[in-house]
Amino acid sequence: MAVDEQLLEILICPHCQGELTLIELPAASRLRLVEKYREHFQGEDPVVEQGLHCAASNLIYPIVSDIPIMLVDDALPDSVLTGRVPTTDASTVDDSTATDRARGS
Questions:
Q1: CA-CA distance, 49 to 79, in Å (whole number)?
Q2: Does the pLDDT value for residue 65 go beyond 90?
Q3: pTM (global) more than 0.70
């Protein structure tokens, strides 16, 4: 079972309202996400293979057992696609992102 095509057409990035692209997640990210969401799937292992990538916000929203997880706090940095380590330098953080996190948004 896959995510409904009509749903994919209407979903947008909750952070910036940008367009989302369906992508395959790297194996290492898949394994981490399976462990993260395992407790929510009693009696079965969650299936994580794809995500929704927003190029404008550089975020990936994982799809767990055909359910898009559209929470900014649960999104992955798109650096997982290249294996780069995301920077934590404050000068590279978008001001609106820092403000949103400070507000608890």
A1: 17
A2: yes
A3: yes
